[in-house]
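User: Show me a protein chain along with its predicted structure.
Assistant: Here is one chain, sequence first, then structure tokens.
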Amino acid sequence: MAANQSSFPEAVTTLINAQSLTAIFELGLCWPKGTPPTGKDWAKNTPQSTWKSLCWESLLALSKFSVDNMPDLITLLPAPSSPEFPVQALSLVVLLDQAPRHLCNGVNERWRNGFFDVLALRLSLQLRDLPSNLRIETFPRWEEAGFSFAHWCQASTLLSAPFAHAEDLALHEKILLPVVRERRALTEKYYNVIDAFHAAEVAKGMTMDASEDTLAFARFVKGGWPDMEEISEVVFWYCRVSEAHVPIIRTFGRYPYRNRALGRESTEAEREYLVQTENFGVSVNEDDARKIREDVEKGVWTPLA
């Protein structure tokens, strides 16, 4: 689905601009450059009302386009060589990938997984296709902009999220897992620590990303954030949460807990998986699921509202 290269209209550019993207950046990395976040800082939740006030109108404006007729998202950003590019590019990824996870529920959950996830992945692939010196997933690019390694840890995690959310094993294996492995290794080296959980996996000869443990993702998330001051512990937790996506995609080829949101019928194996996880990740009720299935069958979308 190649993006249309036409320009965004003023109705979009007045909403998604340098000022709004800078504000959205602070939803993810709300600590000044001179104040590296701690693990406990990272775990703080942003109020739902803040997400809505900063992101909802922009999501509505983008929803007026179809996926196939979407202008090039990267045109909403400054030139990749600009000092402002890393912050604004990350902010646009957060708008497309994270904001819908806070704001698109019920019937709107189809928009999260079937529309905005597609856009977030498209933009993320474009960012990775930039020349190596301009790519924003690397620490040097953030260090040049005056951010700490701790800031980069969080930026890196947010930038890799669209690949974890993609129902595509090839992207998991070629992009997500190498990124996670590098983030873990760099974090261990920078803080002179060891990811004990991962080290134990290695000692047993079976790491999470290579396992068939489809229940691990639900288990980790239900277990909650690590109650640690050290940011390295949060980095390591996110690494294993990211890796825990892979067995699910390897086994089912998709995320069973999204089936209702996307109007899909679950297989017998997927229904058993959902029973085992106590319907973890399923937030669409039967009435909304029925409406979504009707829309999918008709080839229409209930407007985002």
